[in-house]
Amino acid sequence: QVQLVESGGGLVQAGGSLGLSCVASGRTFSMYAMGWFRQAPGKVRDFVAAITWGNDIAAYYADSVKGRFTVSRDKAKNTVYLQMNSLRPEDTAVYYCAADPTVLGRTANAYDYWGQGTQVTVSS
Known about the structure:
Layout (H helix, E strand, L loop, with lengths): L1 E6 L2 E4 L4 E9 L6 E7 L6 E7 L6 E3 L7 E6 L4 E6 L8 E8 L12 E2 L3 E6 L1
């Protein structure tokens, strides 16, 4: 089992920045990838970004956040980060951290473990 806890959400103005953190515990040695997803009210849970957990780092982003968001990791701290710049009102959602032992997926059903989410609200 892997446990994930997100933090860093809040209220920001459009054009501003916000950084999210996700701390993993448990069987973190078994992780292959960690991802970020977001879900707005009445919407499905959409892929945002993901990063591999091995020695070779590979990061992937949804088209809607490329050039604005950056995903990074700190294995010593069992932490993955999502730095969000140039935020837009449409970025408003609950942001979730996820982990999977076998693949780096870009759909929510590819991940086995999830945090409880952190709210990000971007005002006009």
